[in-house]
Amino acid sequence: MPLDFERLRADFPALARLTNGRPLVYLDSAATSHKPLQVLDAERRFYEDHNAAVHRGAHTLAGEATEAFESARDRLAEFLGARSNEIVWTSNATAAINLLAYAFSNASSGRGGAEADRFRLGAGDEIVVTELEHHAYLIPWQELAARTGATLRYIGVDDSGRLLLDQAREVIGERTKIVAFAHVSNVLGEVTPVSELVALAREVGALVVLDACQSAPHLPLDVTALDVDFAVLSGHKMLGPLGIGVLYGRAELLDAMPPFLTGGSMITSVTMERAEFLPSPARFEAGTQPVAQAVGLAAATEYLAGLGMDRVHARDAELGQKLALGLSELPGIRVLGPAPGEPRVGLASFLVDGVHSHDVGQFLDNLGIAVRVGHHCAEPLHRRLGVAASTRASTSIYTTDAEVDALIDGVAQVRTFFGA
Prior knowledge:
Structural class: alpha/beta
Order of helices and strands: EEEHHEHEHEHEHEHEEHEEHHEEHEEHEH
Radius of gyration: 22 Å
């Protein structure tokens, strides 16, 4: 049976507020989503009933906190189609990708022994990304290349932003050690052809790293079926708390990878001269962990799974088409990315002829409509498309058809208001 997505709004108290004297129309979920009561309650209950340091104390509260923490890991693993020892908690997706890049860097400097050989980079080796990437996913690879002497190469896009697969076949070659790309573009809303890129990487023995930040809230996500080696995601974009992210990695790879952050909770023994490290995931979770946030994120995945990710995706795709079609029919409006009718998630970035995106965003905000403006941390992609900035509207499960209509009506007024 179809879900009553409008009824779900009662689970999201933030959506009931007014902004600038008008009902809030929140279309910035790609930046951060709102949280249902089930997530807020789970996090609060942890603090009220079970708050203690995990994996350390022998008292009852410490045991309860540890159980909650590891149960959250189990539920995240189930949501992603992974095993529990393949889930590493981080503070966000940026931290997760930096963990990987610095672990590879440590391996490249000789840390980790023979097991870490597969992660070592040097002159002549290549890291391949795409022109679609978010800065948080691009810059760590730039820095890894600079530290190791490897070369960073990228797969370009055409004038509409579609990935050039013919070019991918030329760029990914025998020198390629890492292929890293976004599952869904945070600017265009298009879904990357994962299977084709994974196949090209497998032909040359390269590791595959997937940015799942924009796919996890919208698509059924099975990292094992996708056959990627690593994936990163961020809790706050998928109805979860701020301050929590996830690194997925194949267990055999994580266990062979040298750690990045070091300290307590990730060691087996320590002398004054050296330390021995635990297997994954503990070896990558030094210090005090975001326990309550992990509990909250697990509640978010249960919420999404309870709705059914196939149904979530169907609704999301419907809203994406409504956005693309409604905006593209307005005079003086250019929608970036896939044309109406082509697959996209519930996200559309657009240009208003003669009006800067910041002015568009301010005008819409006066109508109570929250959108994102700027280059959305994807400046190279905007430069490739010949634009400095765009306005982005993005949906979630709580977005209604009426809210998308309100956006389209608001955008239709912009050029007249500014005399463009």
